[in-house]
Design a protein that fits this description.
Number of helices: 14
Largest sheet: 9 strands, mixed
Number of domains: 2
Distance between the termini: 45 Å
CATH topology of the largest domain: Transposase Inhibitor Protein From Tn5, Chain A, domain 1
Oligomer: single chain
Number of strands: 13
Helix content: 25-40%
Radius of gyration: 23 Å
Length: about 400
């Protein structure tokens, strides 16, 4: 199955201009600053009949996103947060005002749930990706700076039913800042490989982005795609590329000096040496410049060996852009998405426990959870549980995190 980019997604997904602002033409043809979440939500088509709408889609999405940022882990928690939302917060979000009483009205929780279930998840993913694309160029304002990004998938276990497998989503996250930049649904009739390019297409400009991923994505077509987009790759090589694996495994690694070693200490000790050499002539992979061998040794606190693993890999990066130390950091960055997004979504924001299964609502809530994590990290919270507690302390706090305050 091939992923077809819907027209609205194509319109929302834009390149980033020289000033680092992601812009999108509205219905009048004028550019809209996608750095403002309200403008992002305004580009998402409202699936409801125009007749009888009482609350704008922007307001509904803002309320749900604020509730999730405050730690709401289920529809019941989201409904509770919205029901308690005070007048000054509803005014800030742009809620409807009753002409007779003068009070701002929150949409009924049932309206919120029904609307979220009907919104197209692909449009939501594209809008959030366009927003993050603008922030991407603000975080990395040097046009020549490498931007490390890792691609990985996650299964939403709570969406599984006896007759239906759990949903699966693919995401691209900044390795250094742990910000999820883009996400996409993986069809049950397809796989993560075919979702790779559509995922990154949402980001717009990929110049100088370095993509790391697991072995499943070590595909020649992925390498050619990234080269066309002026991006780079750092891919591990495994059994899905047997010819390339055998070629790299046969190299004289014993004669290659260790270029860099990383040491970590937590519940045990970890030692990660890496060896790097120029790609030998005839290496069977497109645009490859360097090949590497990274080993990972784990010891207990008394230096008793516990486990070891070796990873062969290829990269499009030349030695002038990626020293052995930088390559080791890029390879290790692929592990960060599990710890800094997937784990947090499951444990802190309760994704695996969430039993929302209606239509595409699970995908939309997953996108919002990742965005909430990123918003709290940008405020300086390294512990997201602490961030959600801070957001719960005052109804204005999630608005501050989301940039919705005046």
């Amino acid at each position: 199955m091939q992923f077809a980019m819907p027209p609205v997604l194509s319109a929302i997904t834009t390149a980033v201009d020289d000033a680092g602002q992601c812009e999108h033409p509205d219905s009048s043809g004028e550019a809209v600053d996608m750095a403002d979440l309200r403008h992002v939500w305004a580009q998402i088509p409202d699936p409801r009949d125009p007749h009888g709408r009482r609350h704008r889609l922007v307001v509904i999405l803002a309320l749900v996103q604020a509730a999730i940022t405050s730690g709401a882990t289920s529809y019941a928690a989201i409904r509770h947060w919205i029901a308690r939302c005070p007048q000054h917060v509803l005014e800030q979000i742009g809620a409807r005002r009753d002409r007779r009483t003068g009070r701002y009205q929150a949409p009924h929780p049932d309206t919120v749930c029904r609307t979220i279930a009907r919104v197209n998840a692909a449009h939501v993913d594209a809008a959030y990706a366009a927003h993050r694309a603008g922030q991407l160029r603000e975080l990395y304002d040097d046009p020549g700076e490498l931007i490390p990004m890792t691609v990985d998938g996650k299964t939403q276990r709570g969406t599984a039913t006896p007759g239906t497998p759990a949903r699966h989503r693919l995401g691209a996250q900044l390795a250094d800042d742990a910000l999820m930049v883009a996400t996409i649904d993986v069809s049950s009739k397809s796989n993560k490989i075919t979702a790779f390019a559509p995922l990154l297409d949402q980001i717009g400009c990929l110049k100088n982005v370095v993509i790391s991923a697991d072995r499943l994505h070590t595909q020649q077509e992925h390498a050619r795609y990234l080269h066309r987009r002026e991006a780079f790759y750092v891919f591990p090589v495994g059994g899905n590329q047997p010819g390339l694996f055998d070629q790299l495994d046969a190299l004289a690694w014993k004669d290659v000096p260790i270029g860099w070693t990383t040491y970590d200490r937590g519940h045990g000790r970890t030692e990660v040496p890496i060896q790097v050499m120029p790609a030998p002539p005839g290496t069977r992979f497109p645009h490859v410049k360097q090949v590497f061998l990274l080993e990972r040794y784990v010891y207990d606190l008394r230096w008793k060996p516990l486990s070891s693993v070796a990873v062969l890999g290829v990269t499009h990066l030349p030695a002038t852009l990626a020293t052995p130390r930088r390559l080791a950091e890029l390879v290790r960055g692929e592990w960060s998405i599990e710890n800094k997004d997937h784990y947090v979504r499951d444990v802190t924001l309760g994704e695996d426990r969430c039993r929302v299964r209606t239509a595409l609502a699970p995908s939309i809530l997953a996108t919002m959870r990742s965005y909430a994590i990123g918003a709290l990290r940008l405020l300086g919270f390294t512990n997201i549980a602490d961030g959600t507690r801070w957001a719960r302390d005052d109804f204005r706090n999630p608005l501050i995190a989301l940039g919705l305050t005046m």
